[in-house]
């Protein structure tokens, strides 16, 4: 688009990764097959979505699933770290993922109402602001701009596999700082906390953790935002302390007991949703606030999460 400064995006993401992203975005074949770490992208099979909706309506359970999808929960996750600077004991992060806000605009006011009653120091989004992967990106960007107006703390985010690079200037003009393999530093006295963010590792494979961590002190306490849990192993051996992600929706439609039918991510079962550990790395995979493909949930409620960091 003429109003997007690709030169600035190239400086931030890197020439090679930006070219890769733009090529995948424009290539019609990979809308269904072939790109990223997943061989089939179910979110792009629109006829399948219609079949699923009709089937659920015939079975008489669509309305139940829709009500479930609108029943947003606030989860509290207290995490203890031996390396957390004492000055950041009690630091709170509001974590929102997979809003897919243009697919269900009613969710906007629900998130605002829930978040309005919470205390947090920063808010982070772990991608998938929009529902489509190659349609209009302005409307979901406008919805996100409206959403963050009522958030009472600085907002940081990474892009997901549903988000295009052209959304970056629109989101940032609304006050959402997008981390394109970048980092920011929070300071309290002489103590520092690093927040890293990588571009989508699932579909575009444009994540560059090495760039995000370059020049960082070896003993730094750092939190990583990534859209999906697929680079957990790399993060664990790169000095990351806390890994926040989404993408899986927790399965969205699960069997009784919360067992996902489809998680669409290559990771361990225990890493598909909720809190988990991998060696010294701790992390959390959000079930997501929104829905993808069909506006229903079964045995897997939507969530926004407040993570409270504690010193051991």
UniProtKB/TrEMBL annotation:
Biological process, per Gene Ontology: lipid A biosynthetic process
GO CC annotation, single: membrane
Matches recorded under SUPFAM superfamilies: Metallo-dependent phosphatases
Calcineurin-like phosphoesterase domain sequence ranges: 91-250
One matching Pfam family: Metallophos
Domain of life of the organism encoding this protein: Bacteria
GO MF: metal ion binding; UDP-2,3-diacylglucosamine hydrolase activity
Annotated keywords: Hydrolase, Metal-binding
InterPro entries associated with the record: Calcineurin-like_PHP, Metallo-depent_PP-like, Metallophosphoesterase_sf
Descriptive protein name: Metallophosphoesterase
The organism of origin for this protein: Tichowtungia aerotolerans
